[in-house]
C-alpha cells in the first residue's frame, strides 16, 4: 500500500494555506460590517439590501464564463495576486468616503461590485490552482485543510467583529479586511510553482473555449447533478440570507453582537464538518454523503423562520443552532463535491469547468437577492424566510435522482467512472 505524503510538507501549499487563513479572517469583518453599515448607518431598506447583495455576487453571472477561459490561458497565481491588489484598494475607499462624510449606499454598491469581480477571478484561479500545486492524491486533504482553516477564521471573526462594532464604527472594521488581502498577496508572491501559461498557438476563439467548458459540465452526470443541487440551494439560501441582517437586527433586535455570535456558531459547525468529512464519507460513502448533507442542510434552515416567535437575546440560541447545523452540512457537502470535480476534470479545463459551475451556482445569487428585496418588501421579511426554507428542502432532489446514492467511493479520474457504475462522458471528448 502506497503512503500518501502529508500535504503540509508541500512548501508552496503552506504559503497558500497561511495567506488564505489570514485573508478569510479579514473577510469576516467585512461580511458583518457591510450589512451593519448599510442597515444602521445608511438606513438601507429591503430593496436596497437586495441590490447590495446582488452587486456582491453579480460578477459570477456577468463575467463568470469568460473568466474561466481567461484563467485557463493565464498563470493562475498571478491572477490571484492581481485580484488581491484590486480588493485591497477597493475596500480602502469605504472608510475614506465614510470619514470624509461622502459615503452613500450607491457607492457601497459599486465597491462591493468591484470586489465581486476581483473575487470571481481569484476564486476560479484558486480552485484551479490547487490540483496544480499539490499531488493528485493530496487534493482531498488540501481542500479539507484549507476549509478547516477557513472555518477557524470564521469562528472568531464574526464574534470579534460584533464586539468591535460596539467600540468602533463599521467602516473602521473594513480596513482590517483590506490589510488581510495584502497578507494574501505577500504569501502568494512567495510560492514557487512550475505552472506554464497555455500555448497561445493552442488557443481557440473565446466563445469556443467557453463552450467547451460548459459542454464538459453538462455532459458529466455527476458534476451536472451537483451543479443543479448547488444552484437551487444557493438561490433559496440567498433569498433568506439577503434579508437575514434586516431580520436579525430590525425584526428580532438581537444587535450586532448577537448577529456575530450566530455567524460564529455557524463557523464552529463548519470547522467540525470540515474536520469530520473524511470520516463521515468513509462511514456513509463518498457519493451518499453528498446526498445526505444536501438534504440536512436544507432542513437546518428551519430555526431561522421559527426564531420570529422570539425576540432579542432569546432568539440567539435558536439562530445559532441553525447556523451550526447548516454550516456543518455545507462544509461536508462542499469538500466532497469540489474534490470530485477536481478529480474528474482534465487539467487544461479546470478554469473553465470551475467558472461554468460558478456562473450557474453563484449566478443565481444576484437574481435571488433582487427577488428577496422585492418579495420581502411585498409580503414581509418573515414569510420570505419560510419560502427560503421550503425551497432549500427541494435542492437535494438533483443529487438524489443521480448515480451518487449508489456510489460508495467516488472516481479519481474521468476514465474511472465506469468502475462506479456511472455512465460518464468518454475521455476522448473530455480531452
- The rough form would be described as globular
Distance between the ends: 30 Å
Oligomer: single chain
Low-confidence parts, pLDDT < 50 over ≥5 residues? Answer: 415-431
Described by strand count, sense and barrel closure, the largest sheet is: none
Mean pLDDT metric: 82
- The H/E string reads HHHHHHHHHHHHHHHHHHH
Quickly name the level 1 CATH class.
Mainly Alpha
- Counting helices, strands and paired strands, the structural category is mainly alpha
- CATH overall fold name: Growth Hormone, Chain: A
By DSSP, the count of extended strands is 0
Which architecture name does CATH use? Up-down Bundle
Proportion of strand residues: under 5%
Number of helical regions: 19
Helical content class:
over 70%
Summed up, the domain count is 1
Radius of gyration: 21 Å
CATH superfamily: MFS general substrate transporter like domains
Describe the protein in words.
The model is unreliable at 415-431 (pLDDT under 50). The protein has one domain (10-191, 206-425): Growth Hormone, Chain: A (Up-down Bundle). The chain is built from 19 helices and no strands. The protein has 431 residues and is mainly alpha-helical. The chain has helices at residues 11-41, 46-62, 64-73, 76-99, 105-133, 139-164, 170-189, 206-219, 221-241, 244-251, 255-284, 286-299, 303-306, 316-344, 350-361, 364-379, 381-394, 397-400, 427-430.
